[in-house]
Amino acid sequence: MKPNLEHPWDLTPQQARALQNKLRKRVVLRPASRLPKLVAGVDVSVSRGPWREATSRAAVVVFDYETLEPLEVATAEMPSPFPYVPGLLSFREVPVLLLAFAKLVHKPDLVLVDGQGYAHPRRLGLASHLGIVLNLATIGCAKTRFIGTHDEPADPAGGYTDLVDLSVSPSEIIGAVVRTRDRVKPLYISAGHRMDTPTAIDHVLHCCDGYRLPEPTRRAHQCAAGKTLDELQRDWKRQSKRT
């Protein structure tokens, strides 16, 4: 897969924020009318130490949407291109993700991202930025809150509440806080690109196979740490037999 949009990545934090404010106008908060056939999860791990000496490793794992059978794993590594700056995670992670996406044989219809989407101060979190660059439908599936206020979602799994940005006038719903498993901490779900919040919630709940995290991002995290497609497929077959 090749990028649909190209822009410089070697920017200062000030330049990166200015670019986010420009790119936010491209975000489409409208989902496709049909269900995806293929869904991917992405994750990036960064080695410890000074960022100029660190290595970023990305994993993209493609699944059959209906069965969640893992079909393909693509990984890539590069020197970490950007320091960790809150709100600018995409400039640290998208470049190495693009290298991994370039290796894919299967083109996903939907991508779940371990990070924020629209729930971002400039409405351009990692999921939104990646979606714009690749012109893919994306969803932000964050484990922690970055911005916004919310009530606690109801138990059991499937309960959710609005994530609201009260710092703007009028206040704006920027995502949802979703209980994906009984009696565990919720996830912070937001539309990335070519997506809306209600549809994002449905997709995430579909992809949570008994775990707090959606299977695509959970498995991408494992593959960024070295797990292989063969290992994923063996896990999937064992689980399929149990169900």
From TrEMBL:
Organism: Aeoliella mucimassa
Protein name (record): Endonuclease V
Location of this chain's protein in the cell: Cytoplasm
Molecular-function GO term, any one: RNA endonuclease activity producing 5'-phosphomonoesters, hydrolytic mechanism
Residues under site feature: Interaction with target DNA: Y84
Short name of any one Pfam family annotated for the protein: Endonuclease_5
Record carries keyword Acyltransferase: no
GO cellular component term, pick one: cytoplasm
Entry's Gene Ontology BP terms: DNA repair
Reactions mediated catalytically: Endonucleolytic cleavage at apurinic or apyrimidinic sites to products with a 5'-phosphate
Its biological purpose: DNA repair enzyme involved in the repair of deaminated bases. Selectively cleaves double-stranded DNA at the second phosphodiester bond 3' to a deoxyinosine leaving behind the intact lesion on the nicked DNA.
Cofactor(s) demanded: Mg(2+)
Domain of life: Bacteria
Keywords for this protein: Cytoplasm, DNA damage, DNA repair, Endonuclease, Hydrolase, Magnesium, Metal-binding, Nuclease
Family classification: Belongs to the endonuclease V family.
EC number of this enzyme: 3.1.21.7
Residues holding Mg(2+): D43, D114
